[in-house]
Amino acid sequence: MRKKNFFAGPSVLPLEVLEEIRDQIVDYNGEGLSMIEASHRGGMFEEMYDECLATFRRLLGIPEDYDVYFLGGGATLQFAMIPMNFLLPGKSADYAKTGSWSNKAASDAAKIGCVNVFFDGKESNYTTLPSVKDIRPSEDACYLYLCSNETIGGIEWQDFPDTGNVPLIADMSSDILSRPVDVSKFAMIYGGVQKNLGPAGATFIIMRKDMLERRNDNLPAYLDYSLHAKNKGLYNTPPVFSIWAVKLVLDWVEKNGGPEGMLERAKRKSKLIYDVIDSSSFFRSPVDKAFRSRMNIVFRLPSEDLEKKFVAEATEEGMLGLKGHRSVGGLRASLYNALKEEDVVALRDFMLDFEKKNG
Ligand SMILES: *Cc1c(COP(=O)(O)O)cnc(C)c1O
Predict the structure, then answer these.
(1) Total-model pTM
(2) Would you call 230 a catalytic residue per the annotation?
């Protein structure tokens, strides 16, 4: 019996994808070798890779004047690469500090150059976001940076600021393809694939081509976006296995209604849990209702002892990954695209039952 997987990342994958990998891992389409044994300069990989990129473009409606490719190093490497490339000497970059991930990004950028924090959620303990209408980039900003979904705090931007000529850059690691997004509003969107798109190893990069003209040059090769763009992400060996699995996940997303279909699923699934939280005084959500994440639902119980008990009993029921991140405590249920609605119904029922017994 497969467990009900609420892990925040790496996280649940569609069963169909795992089965396809199992069936194909030794002998890919009768070619007599595995995809993970093949050269990334060969036809077998390239055909799969091209399809992967084409499907990603189709699903997100990525315009022609954007490059799309995958890198290694996780989303974390991008915290450094973005300022190394785009934070020009004597200028600044605007950052929203909305939780753990954007704080890390801002902290790396501050080591490279001048960072202007235009929003800091610290006072609210990172439970709310700014209103997008009030956001104005600074005069000398090279770009404006935000994290669309704070995976640890469970807080998600519902819409995005209009930054005019200032490039908007977003970390969408944990909500990519969970909803439609107007890519043309962004100069760059990136994220680790291990939340919503596949197994760990690859980081997706979507970047408007003109960004390459406003970057610092003279960077070491791997850290320079222009080399990756010029080589379609194949400057060096890409994370082949991860990309193959991402390709299969993208096919699955397309078969299941694309980003619109994923949004409908996410709305239904998150409502099941938020309804329980809202109709009880036993469960509590710390997050401003207007910005609640549909991917990562953070909640608390009346005491830490009860939270421990909740996790232990849920684990016995085959529900994994419900403990909150070690930096914030509490509980968290991650409801990524691939998580089945019936698994969320099971969690809902478990929550109701737990409240009855302990409330
Ligand atoms: C997981 C996560 C990261 C870090 O990703 P790594 O691939 O582990 O470097 C960064 N940002 C967000 C929003 C995340 O969810």
Answers:
(1) 0.98
(2) no
